[in-house]
Amino acid sequence: MNLKDIRAEETLQASSYYKKQNNEINICFSSDKxxxxxxxxxxxxxxxxxxxxxxxxIYILDGGLxxxxxxxxxxxxxxxxxxxxxxxxxxxxxxxxxxxKNEHISLAAYYRLLISEFLPNLDKAVYLDCDIDIKxxxxxxxxxxxxxxxxxxxxxxxxxxxxxxxxxxxxxNSGVLLLNLKKFRETNFCENIFKWIEQNKSxxxxxxxxxxxxxxxxxxxxxxxxxxAQQKFHKNTQGAAVVHxxxxxxxxxxxxxxxxxxxxxxxxxIFLTFLRxxxxxxxxxxxxxxFRVRNKDKNTKExxxxxxxxxxxxx
Length: 315
Prior knowledge:
- The protein is an alpha/beta fold.
- Helix content is about 35%, strand content about 20%.
- It has eleven helices and 13 strands.
- The strands form three sheets. It has a seven-stranded mixed beta sheet with strand order 3-2-1-4-7-6-8.
- It is globular.
- It starts with a helix and ends with a strand.
């Protein structure tokens, strides 16, 4: 090979490297062992529907994944290659964060608050929950300008109701976030947030989501709903780039992700989880049908027994 060919080869390699770096998309998840199977489903949808030139760098905040879980997730690279990093940290950092009893949301929801600390070399990252179906490349989302904002997000499906509770103008869902990690570091967010949580613990009902909405108020960029179409009560999500299956049972998530099931190495586990969740929901629905009491207004109560409704006046 002559000097001219060597230089041409070096130029080509440099161009390829630049292209790879230019198409880098940093994605962050947080998960414990309980959600590992759902995490796998979400990652399969992500890597199946990406652009061929997307260079995905996936970071997983490890809240207690087993070695077996990590191996199963590592094996997903056989579908389409990506960079994978498990981030270990001290869970005690989050000991002051309130988690309500009988909630399906675990302490892992708060881990996203310290992503700027856990990933100190990144200025931007997309955070995704583990109950999401990605329908297309996230490149367009990733390239959104958020220089003047903490993060970009989609309004929560229950935004009007929650805004009244927290006295906010807008309330955003934290399941899909485009994070300006540089701004989080410049404003010492990680140093201040736990003190803020301690002072406001009594009003935090929706965990990290309440924290982010209140602390970052006025510095959140609103995204098009297609980037976090929250599937609730069978809402139409046609045309969405990202479908987010909010709620406790995840039955719709598992059903609508069935095309990814065989690729996850969690086929049996997800099948058994689906049956258990279905029976749990049927049981609670049956109990609710047999007997429930709720306030109709200030003066009356509605009592349902075996499907029959009775209105009782309050004394």
